[in-house]
Amino acid sequence: MHVYILRRLVLMVPVLFGLTVIVFLIMSLIPGDPALAILGSYATPENVAKLRADLGLDKSLISQYWIWLTHMLHGDFGRSYSLNRPVLDEILERFGATLILAGTSLVLCTILGLLTGVVSAVRQYGWADKTLTFVVLIGISVPSFWLGLMMMLLFAVNLRWLPVSGMYAIYGGGDLPDLLRHLVMPSITLAVVATGVIARLTRSNMLEVLRQDYIRTARAKGLDERRVIYRHAFKAALVNVIPVIGVQAGFVLGGAVYIETVFQWPGIGRMLVTAIATRDILLVQGGVVIVAASYVLFNLFADVLQHLIDPRVKA
Amino acid sequence: MKSLFKGALIAAALTVSAFSAGQAEAQTPPGVLLVGQIAEPKSLDPAADTAVNDFRILVNMYDGLVRYKDGTLEVEPDLATSWTISDDGKVYTFKLRDGVTFHDGTPFNAEAVKYNFDRMLDEKHPEHDTGPFPLAFFFSTVDKIDVLDDLTVKFTLKEPYAPFLSNLAYPTGLIVSPAAVQKYGKDFGRHPVGTGPFKFEEWDSNAKVVVSRNDDYWDGAPKLDAVVFRPITDANTRVAELMAGGIDLMVEVPPDSLTNLAGDDNFQVYQQAGPHLWFLILNMKEGPFKDKRVRQAVNYAINKKALVDNVLQGTAEVAAGPTPPAFAWAYDKSLDPYPYDVEKAKQLIRDAGATGKEVTFYVTEGGSGMLDPIPMGAAIQADLAKVGLKVKIETYEWNTFLGKVNPGLAGKADMAEMAWMTNDPDTLPYLALRTDAWPDKGGFNSGYYSNPKVDELLEKARTSTDQNERAKLYREMQQIVHDDAPWAFIANWKQNAVSSSAVKGFKLQPSFFLLLKDVSKD
């Protein structure tokens, strides 16, 4: 097991390295550069050339990448052109916010998705199953930014129960209840699609397991129905659902891009969108490395978990 | 099973009610104005900033040597109380205001002024590395700065340059505290110190910038206790925040929301035309637009009124020529926009033998001052189809678009959307209409317009120090350019803002800066 984890961690290095090369290449291939973005209307060739030299963009692509890589390995992610501050400061601040949002959403979608899936499967074709399947279908189909805006209009603007946007209140905020109030709408919006996916998958896996012989045997033994469902069926179904939750973590991180924009959540998704628009290569590189690393780590965690639950899965 | 499900439901209901118990958002203290900004500022160092979004904060914390007179784009004294200009237009001597101190307590004087411009312009200056200073070229004609005495400073220019004073009124010319720059170095932009009506309190990244009243402000302390600038990038979210009371004032309101908010007594809508021009660059080097008649036909064929009223929903006015009316002193009022005349356009195109010709049209997806470029491009395409021009649209993201348009349209396209916002009537025509401003010579004349008379007028206007003389030259230039039609003149954008009705004394400025000194909140 330890060897397995270690091997996966070592494999992460070439993945991340390849990723930085790809991101760097893409950022260099798309037209426009930071100097152009900063100068906007005033981007005369002369001004652009001067600013490019000031920003160190006049060096060759390979030496730019080499400088970035060697600095990064020393923990220096460089300085953002568009924000005029160290990339690492910005990323750490932003990543914390994204972790809170994405983490909450992931917990929400896991709990709600599993619960809905199990209920649906156990009450197959009953009213609960039909209602839940319908709700899940809507959840998967509705564009999440639209849902976010609608929730905002209802709960923040009309009912005034919840704050419209941001992570903390501008005045008198900063504590946990304040954070939770700001989390409600974005985390639910972000969790909706993933909840639907997990619910559907749990339902089909549960249905499959419930048809297995050993479940019939368990029931025939006269085992309590609750025990049959949770101890026998659910655990077996969970084994197949866990890797999907790992994948959903990726979707939640990706979805955070829209949701963070709609709710002004100061996370890394919104930062990346702005950074790409302003061609802030260093900020994009740093952000992508962190997001990718966390995604890989989370999937590793999901695989290990699956292994622990299911002895059939070999490391 | 059932009980578990029920339990979850009850827990969820309890949580929501706990969060929403009582009030949703803590009330903003009275005397504090919350402003919705369109983005996080890049820096609060005026020498390093290029975006209007950042300028809106800067102008409240800093003063320049001169500033724009309320409601105009004409300069008036600010930290300089008076100035003289030598007859050859090359030496500007400023008398400085006595007794002004920076927010950090250090005195404002001639040394501080010299320090500010040396930092931007002199590569050997010890704090030049606090840049880069992308707009330093605003002052590239400055040769040297001499401190004559504590309150007198002399700027010597390499050549006469009439826009010098209005460039000083631009945020790039705002004066920062030298002591603070030395103290914070590269991080000065996050610890700004100026002489303005508000002083910096805190910058909470991606959440807010807070400034508080400077009680010792030389021009009278502001009425507000503090201002909080909140970056809210999504326009719909900004409107929702305004409606929910999360902000008191917002700029760049989407046209749809503006119409709704205008009918609501709880809000007040402000509009102000600015020094902005939205136009089409026409490629005069090759293709149908080589012929003046076809260029004029395009100007006749586009229904500008419909664009402004329907696509832009009244957030802009129809443009008549290359100079926006916001430059009141230099604008030629006798100039009328090309009327919408389909028959005349058809006739001109027929005469030029261009009927049925295909033209390539560069359209951008967005970008600074571009308003609603995709629907506008589509409407223009339809208008030109009516007069016999087949328009093929190519759409690009803003930075890509600039990368294609700025090097010139030759060999690629026949027309392109463009918009400019400037602070002096010199800037746009000088950078985009002169023969010496063709892309290969480092300018923005991407359609290759060339008229020796216009070149001469613009050079003359730039070196004259007499405003009336300059105005005359600019008016003559506008007449010629209007007739030559190197561009299709479409719209002048009106800046808008909406505040809650509790906000009093707010006014938009043609400069698009957001001056909050005289604003109060009930």
Write up what this structure looks like:
The complex is a heterodimer of chains A (315) and B (522). Chain A is an all-alpha fold. Chain A contains twelve helices and no strands. Chain A has helices spanning 2-29, 34-39, 45-55, 61-73, 87-122, 127-141, 144-158, 176-210, 213-220, 225-262, 268-277, 281-309. The longest helix of chain A is centred in the C-terminal third of the chain and has 38 residues, at 225-262. Chain A is globular, with a radius of gyration of 24 Å. The mean pLDDT of chain A is 86. Chain B is α+β, with helices and mostly antiparallel strands and 522 residues long. Helices cover 30% and strands 22% of the residues of chain B. In chain B, strands 1, 8, 9, 10, 11, 12, 13, 14, 15, 16, 17 and 18 form a twelve-stranded mixed beta sheet that branches. A four-stranded antiparallel beta sheet of chain B has the order 4-5-7-6, covered by helices on one side. The longest helix of chain B is centred in the first third of the chain and has 19 residues, at 2-20. The N and C termini of chain B lie far apart (55 Å). At the A-B interface, helix 2, helix 3, helix 5, helix 7 and helix 8 of A face helix 1, strand 10, helix 6, helix 12 and strand 17 of B.
